[in-house]
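Hi L.,

As promised, Patatin-like phospholipase domain-containing protein 4:
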Amino acid sequence: MSVLQQPMVHGVIAARVVNLSNLRNVSRGRCISRIVRTMTKSNTKNHEGAVNTPRLPPEIAPYKSCTGRIQSTTALVERPPSCQDLSLPEKINISFAGCGFLAVYHLGVAKGLLTHGQHVVSKVNRWGGASAGAIAAAAIVCMPNKLGDAVQMLRDFVDVVQKRPLGALTPGFDVLSYLRGELQRYVPAGSYRLASQKLYVSVTRVSDGKNVLLTDFRSDEELIEALLCSCYIPVYCGFRVPTFRGQKYIDGGMTVNMPIYPDGRTLCVSPFSGHLQDICPADKSWLSLSYVVAGHSFRVCSQNIWRAMVALFAPSHETLSEYLDRGVGDAITFLQENRLLEERIKRES
């Protein structure tokens, strides 16, 4: 579920493209870029139950997509320079990017992992994300056996928005109030106990513009408040800024759209193709160029431009179903490429 967060239009840029070279090879699709990415670590807790994510200077290390989808992009990132063997006994974290209505893709990925990679899911130490990604992560943590309810909640939201003449921007339509009601309806009682120290919700603190990860919840209402804070886009979602324990927070995707954790291996998931994602659509384009916004990479291609429109404006149910299935397929592809697909599935295929 989402409140139409679209990271491509965020005004806060967490990294910039520099040192663009070899432009003479553009016609042959060999444009190479160097990208500087500002990463964050979650290592301190404050009295509000939030984990601070201070900005850190990036380490210079080459990075190649674990799936080998974009070979020509070199990045300066604070991540392992090569793929790790996920079969080893180590902590795994999963981070979902904010992506508006395309959050259905995350639910598809979760379905694929739960069905065909349970041994991987069992090692997950943290689930997290920003905005729509945070709600998808919450659904997996709090109701893993009822992901169909989360999909239905998104479908209902699409129907409600499409009935408005200006969609979510229709005067008098309170997106957060509607979303609050849906979360109160679908979130099982006592979910805050499952979510505490397991779910990490990326938000941006209004007072200083810093990113924090909310992970300590004392009630179901606090859990819902954290999710609403992460989903709030100023103006787009109205003018009343939501709060968590008295502090005002807004969309976490404005500062860190795809949280990376300091310990263990973080798997990044996004319906937008990009070189920093571990699970994402494998788009083909003659121009191998990506750029990074708030820690989330976007490949320059027509498919991503179309997805930006889908994420912002309510798509058809057919499109939702398409991206749900695509999420399942991309999760299985990731497991296959990393030799993690369960033997039962291998025999069936």
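The first strand starts at residue 15 and ends at 21.

Thanks again for sending the construct details.

K.
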